[in-house]
Design brief:
about 160 residues, mainly beta, eight-stranded antiparallel beta barrel
């Protein structure tokens, strides 16, 4: 009788574990944004409140294509969502490097606030965020005003797919 009870308990526990949703912490990302326009990369969710990511982007501009290398960190806040058991609102800090620029000041700093919108498959979704880009000054005509950087609006639409 005891053996039957133990076996039933183990079988019941295995069936409960099989229903647990496991969401991968690693994601493939692809999207459209300012400043990197079209980009492809990967991100890793370190904890429920922190995610890091890297991507490569291309931006066509007046017959020239600019490439960018991007690094970002997301700090998630607000309450945990019911669908994926993760926080979805975030503050993003990022740095973009533009290797084609001839100046030593070819970086931009990106600060946005956004939200992850989770699809039916909780490992996939879309991210929308908006904020500002601080472009380090690399043109001499900007120095007339004494500005070190120029601020532009930032907007990003990004799909993510869990591995």
């Amino acid at each position: 009788m005891r053996l039957a009870t133990i076996l039933m308990t183990l079988l019941f526990n295995f069936s409960l574990c099989a229903q647990d949703v496991k969401i991968s912490k690693t994601r493939i990302v692809a999207g459209i944004a300012i400043p990197e326009f079209l980009h492809l990369g990967a991100s890793y969710r370190i904890a429920n409140i922190s995610q890091i990511g890297v991507s490569v982007g291309v931006s066509p501009s007046w017959g020239v294509t600019y490439t960018s290398l991007n690094v970002e960190h997301r700090l998630y806040f607000d309450k945990i969502g019911k669908k994926a058991n993760q926080k979805t609102l975030f503050f993003r800090q990022g740095v973009s490097y533009f290797p084609a620029e001839q100046s030593s000041k070819n970086f931009s700093f990106n600060f946005t606030i956004g939200n992850d919108f989770i699809f039916k498959n909780s490992g996939n979704g879309i991210t929308i965020d908006a904020g500002i880009i601080a472009l380090l000054n690399h043109r001499s005509d900007y120095y007339r005003d004494g500005a070190i950087y120029v601020v532009w609006p930032a907007l990003r639409f990004q799909f993510y797919f869990s591995l």
